[in-house]
Amino acid sequence: MRQVSVGEIAQESPILKIEDLSVSRSGKTIIKDIDLTIEKGEFVGIVGPNGSGKSTLLLTILGVLKSQTGTIGIYGHPPLSRKLDGRIGWVSQAASNLPRHVRITVHELVQLGTINSRNMFSFVNDERRERVKKAIEMVGLEDVIDVDLGRLSGGQRQRAVIARALASDAEFILLDEPLVGIDREARNALLKLLDQLCHEQGKTILMVSHDLTAMLQTAHRMIFLEETIRFDGAAEKFPNLETLADLRGIAHVHGDGYMHHHNHSKEEV
Ligand SMILES: Nc1ncnc2c1ncn2[C@@H]1O[C@H](COP(=O)(O)OP(=O)(O)OP(=O)(O)O)[C@@H](O)[C@H]1O
Ligand SMILES: [Mg+2]
C-alpha cells in the first residue's frame, strides 16, 4: 500500500465527516441521526435552543464525549487521534471565565497555544514567537500584552482565548458561544477576523452562537440543531420563524410564540 502523507489526506477528504452519530449523557439521548460534512474553508454556524445539544456535538467532535452510534472523521481520523495534534483549535465560553486569581498574562496564555506534543520540551523558537505576536495583533490586544488576564474585560479575555487558538496554527477551529459577554464593537471585530481566517487563510470554522443575527451575517452555512439537524443550508436560506416551527414540530400558537417563550432577545434562537 502506498504511504499517504498528512498533506495529501487534508486535500482529499473533508475536514469533518460525521455519519449517523448519536450521543447519550447519563443514559439520555441528547443528539441523534447526525450526518454532517464540512469542507475546507467553510464557516459553519450552529444555532438551536438551550439544551438542544450544540455543546454536546462540539465536545463529541473534540473527543471529550463518546458517541453511542456512528462515526466521526476529522481529516479522516477519529477524534483524539495523534495525527490531529495541533490541527484543531477550541474556544469555549468557559475558557474566557478563567479564574481571576490565576495570574497569567495575555502573552503567556497565547504562548500556551503553541505548545504541542512535539515541541513540549523545547525552547520557544522565533517561528513560535512570531505566531504569538501575530495572533495577539489579530485580536487587537497588543496594548495589553503583558497585562494579567484578571485585569482585562470579559471581551478582552475572550479575545485572548481566541488568540491562543490562532497561535496554535490550528486549521479547524471550533468555537462555543465566543460572543457572549463581549460588546458590539469587539463582536464585530471578532466576526470580521473569523471571516478573514476562512477567506484568506483557508481555515475552517464551526461556531455555536445564540446571536442569530451575527451568525446569519457571517456564516456561509447555517445549521439548526435540536436533538438532530433540522436545517442545514446556506445562511440566506435560513428558515423564518414559521418554517422553523414546522421543522421543530411545534404547532403555531401565536405565530412568534417560540421567541417569546424561549428568549428575551430577538437576536437569540
Ligand atoms: N453531564 C451531563 N449529564 C447529563 N446530561 C447532560 C450533561 N450535560 C448536559 N446535559 C444535557 O444535555 C442536553 C444538551 O446539553 P448541551 O450543553 O449540549 O446543550 P446546548 O445546546 O449547548 O445548550 P446551551 O445553548 O444552553 O449552551 C441538555 O438537556 C443538558 O441538560
Ligand atoms: Mg452549550
How would you explain this protein's 3D organization?
- This protein is an alpha/beta fold and 269 residues long.
- It contains 10 helices and 9 strands.
- The chain has 2 domains: 165 residues, P-loop containing nucleotide triphosphate hydrolases (Rossmann fold, 3-Layer(aba) Sandwich); 80 residues, no CATH class.
- It has a 6-stranded mixed sheet with strand order 5-6-7-3-8-9, with helices on both faces. Strands 2-1-4 form a 3-stranded antiparallel sheet, covered by helices on one side.
- The chain is globular, with a radius of gyration of 19 Å.
- 33% of the residues are buried.
- The chain binds adenosine-5'-triphosphate and magnesium ion (MG).
Q: Strands of the biggest beta sheet: in what spatial order?
A: 5-6-7-3-8-9
Q: How many whole angstroms does the radius of gyration measure?
A: 19 Å
Distance between the termini: 49 Å
Q: Mean pLDDT, rounded to whole units?
A: 84
Listing every helix as H and every strand as E from the N terminus to the C terminus, the arrangement reads: HEEEHEEHHHHEHEHEEHH
CATH class bucket of the largest domain: Alpha Beta
* CATH topology (level 3) name of the largest domain: Rossmann fold
Sum up the overall morphology in one term: globular
Q: What small molecules accompany the polymer chains?
A: adenosine-5'-triphosphate, magnesium ion
